[in-house]
């Protein structure tokens, strides 16, 4: 059911719930997923009045997963709602997924009224403490702090590393009149998190990276989730084509580099991933472009030099980096190209083609009967290039993630919080 049209009521007389909805809508949010309870009915009604569509789910976990998928596909924070007690605990798995997958998410739950919290035991849980390990920030909403809390929640969810935040809403707060003046546009809301990575890329680091690139003989690009946007597609392709560098991607970055491109090799952590890691082991330079350590399913053991390019420094040290270009990924790539000067193609096309053909044959073996790979090939031929594909975990994910080519960013979605499908398998096992 479509949300009711917003009234022209004076914005200085909003309820807290309506005010929250207005701020979310101003930030680009259009849907709220959830499962209602008496403690959040007023909150949901305020969202409806603000023009947000409430999407009912059968279970709160599904609401969190749905909001995370919306956020990952759109780049706008997803929003989910649950009541207090077991309703809130049911959100945990989906919120944890958003935390591990760096998806911007705002999770609202109900809570006991503030004046009853200390003397009530029924469904009383310290929800902020419960969500603390799996969210970037937690807050309790009041009539006086609603604007500041929601605006900060939007900024925190989008600030690198992106992720979920949690807001606890006492059941008597949603229908209260919001304090203060709210008629101004929410200009402080950061819709894309750009202000956090707007500093210029360090030129000394760029010169160091350029020297490594020029000196390398066998470089390879490994692109990850922070490269997964339209703005990076062209810069990444230009870098790869200009310097003749083959490209691998993580599952979260499928489509950021067209998989029918002659320089594309494959997707790590999927079927045949050991063969891809062998190729990395034989390289002397790895350009980690937008890669987040959470995307690895194994320890990094390559002895190659690494150029780290991303919105945050390489503080995790999952791999050692010989140079770091910190900033917006497209700009960092452009700076590297400009400093590196005249390119010298690094990998012979025939060498890349030989590996690509060998790898394709390895992950698509011929059988007497119909194979999963053949089914995926027919599916790919029938789908438009911008079709959205989702895949759950299991061996089906390993095959789909490697053998279903994607051509545009954010068109392939799979759960990455748990992916131990090949633990203990031989290095070259498919």
Walk me through the structure.
This protein is of the alpha/beta class. It contains 13 helices and 14 strands. Strands 2-1-3-4-6-5 form a six-stranded parallel β-sheet, with helices on both faces. Strands 9-8-7-10-11-12 form a six-stranded parallel β-sheet, with helices on both faces. Helix 1 (16-26) runs parallel beside helix 6 and helix 7 (203-215) crosses helix 10. The longest helix is centred in the first third of the chain and has 15 residues, at 60-74. The model is unreliable at 187-195 and 417-430 (pLDDT under 50).
Note the main attributes of this structure.
alpha/beta; Rossmann fold; 6-stranded parallel β-sheet; 13 helices; 15% strand; elongated
